[in-house]
Design goal:
Length: 547
């Protein structure tokens, strides 16, 4: 019998299970295969619906078709576009797969698929989104006997959880499992090296990898289990009645138990705080929760999303489901998952679509429903993009198109720089200055904002994954002693104003240079060197035509 997928926090008594009950396997199985046809992977990307997306706003959400108003329609906020869709996989025995979860890390999105009907079948995709406007499925893995309900990538491995029929499996000791497979350059390395562990519960529902631990929830009569990330051996376990989701924030672990509500646990799985929730979370349904500033946001099915204060556990507000579309079963009009992007709250409302709300003055105000196909099971967001798992419609990639905000307003209240001539910003440091100084060198490992006029005699290095923003004038090197600006993998150099380089602009693989506004000028005396795939964004005047 198939049982529940995803998220739940519990505050019932925590009972420690014997770690001997979890068995680790790493055997090869004939029911797992990797797609080898590159054309099949390429054809999975669909652009048919790409383009401008409408938002059905709160005052008009009586259905999913059109807007109606006697007054002239005003221009709406949030100019969203659909970049592309990724079709759900299909294979013999797995013809009705639905996208269940998405995790984005670096240049790749990882997508899990399960089957909602009786029986078990699933899959996992790796999608290269280094250029989100041109996504590519780089690898695909099929399971003919297992659902995949949730996944997370960490340090060259993909960790995933799901359900399997233990009565027919030659290795499963329970229906709930967690797996670990190596990933290299956006591809599964093979099926012979997959590591598995099993735990009590009808179906593993959610997973979080945090530091050296892997947290896994399993549904009815299941557990919250903590595994060693390297070996998948159990470190700790606690029993709950019906877990759907887990979230980790610093030293706090939040779980959603459909039978009771949310529990905040410490690292030893001891209860710190409980939030009783009486909502009907449904049977065998996906529900999630997430930390949201000082709050917990919980997907509560037909009630929408509940926002609770972590400290007191009190209900702050409900964000309801906006529409009741025609032709959709009421059981499918439920909030399955929530995600947060700055002031934006996104709700995956199943057959009622993807809802967008915004935080204003501490309150959550509804905006509307984004025009998308499919039943939205899960949503995650990163930067300017939203990734929605939309059931049989697969994965949908949405661009928020956030406006380029001028750096000028951020510059006015900054303190003046009065430090070393060798400016060095360490990893995890975030510093901002205004002024007019000359430097010997600049090395950025964290985040740096400079506003004003600055010169640098020697090279400027922007290290991997660092951010350097400038507003005003920035000049590097001189003709008889050239110096370079080096932008490394994952790093961003954001320019608003006038940039002059007496030397080369070196863009290493994965680097980004972004120009803000309409009037920025870049004057490269040497060359623009592109060492691999790089991003040059925004409008600018290329004074010497070096780009």
């Amino acid at each position: 019998m198939k049982k529940t997928p995803y998220f739940v926090l519990a505050f019932l008594g925590l009972m420690t299970s014997c770690v001997d009950e979890t068995t680790v396997f790493n055997e090869t199985q004939d029911d797992i295969s990797i797609e080898t046809n590159e054309q099949t992977l390429e054809n999975s990307i669909v652009y048919e619906n790409a383009g401008v997306l409408d938002i059905y706003e709160e005052f008009s959400t009586t259905g999913k078709s059109g807007l109606s108003s006697k007054d002239e329609e005003l221009a709406g906020d949030y100019p969203l576009t659909l970049v592309a869709q990724v079709d759900a996989p299909s294979f013999s025995g797995g013809e009705n797969l639905t996208a269940s979860h998405v995790y984005v890390d670096g240049d790749y999105a990882y997508v899990s698929y399960n089957t909602v009907e009786d029986g078990y079948a699933g899959a996992m995709d790796i999608i290269n989104v280094s250029d989100p406007n041109d996504p590519r499925v780089t690898s695909r893995l099929y399971y003919s006997n297992a659902d995949i309900n949730s996944l997370q990538y960490d340090n060259q491995y993909l960790y995933f959880v799901g359900g399997v029929d233990a009565e027919t499996s030659v290795r499963a000791t329970s229906n709930s499992f967690v797996g670990k497979i190596e990933v290299s350059n956006g591809r599964f390395t093979g099926v012979s090296n997959i590591l598995y562990a099993f735990q009590e519960g009808y179906n593993a529902t959610d997973i979080v990898v945090n530091n050296d631990n892997v947290y896994v929830t399993s549904g009815q009569e299941g557990t919250l289990s903590v595994y060693n990330k390297n070996t998948l051996e159990v470190i700790n376990e606690a029993e709950f009645l019906d877990l759907r989701s887990v979230a980790v924030n610093e030293n706090s672990v939040a779980i959603l138990d459909a039978s009771a509500g949310v529990s905040i646990l410490d690292q030893n799985l001891n209860s710190v705080n409980t939030i009783a929730i009486n909502s009907d979370f449904g049977i065998n349904t996906k529900r999630t929760l997430d930390f949201y500033a000082d709050n917990i946001v919980v997907a509560e099915g037909s009630n929408g999303a509940g926002v609770y204060t972590i400290a007191s556990g009190s209900l702050k507000e409900y964000v309801p489901i906006l529409i009741n579309p025609d032709g959709v079963d009421s059981q499918d009009i439920v909030t399955n998952a929530v995600a947060v992007n700055d002031e934006v709250l996104l709700m995956a409302n199943g057959g009622a679509g993807l809802c967008l709300s915004e935080e204003q003055d501490g309150d959550v105000d509804l905006v509307g429903i984004i025009e998308l196909e499919g039943s939205i099971n899960y949503v995650t967001t990163k930067g300017d993009y939203v990734f929605a798992a939309s059931g049989k419609a697969g994965l949908q990639i949405i661009k928020l198109n956030k406006p380029d905000e001028s750096l000028e307003t951020r510059c006015s209240d900054l303190s003046s720089y009065s430090g070393s001539a060798n400016l060095n910003i360490n990893t995890n440091q975030t510093l901002s200055y205004r002024g007019s100084k000359r430097f010997n060198s600049v090395n950025v490992g964290g985040d740096l904002l400079l506003c004003g006029s600055w010169t640098v005699q020697n090279d400027v290095n922007i290290n991997a994954n660092a951010l350097f923003e400038m507003n005003g004038t920035f000049v590097v090197g001189r003709n008889n002693r050239t110096s370079n600006i080096n932008i490394n993998s994952g790093a961003t150099f954001r320019v608003e104003g006038n940039l002059t380089i007496y030397g080369d602009l070196v863009l290493n693989d994965g680097a980004t240079i972004e120009f803000i506004g309409e009037d920025s000028v870049v004057n490269v005396i040497g060359s623009v060197r592109r060492n691999g795939t790089v991003n040059v964004e925004g409008k600018f005047i290329d004074y010497n035509n070096k780009f």
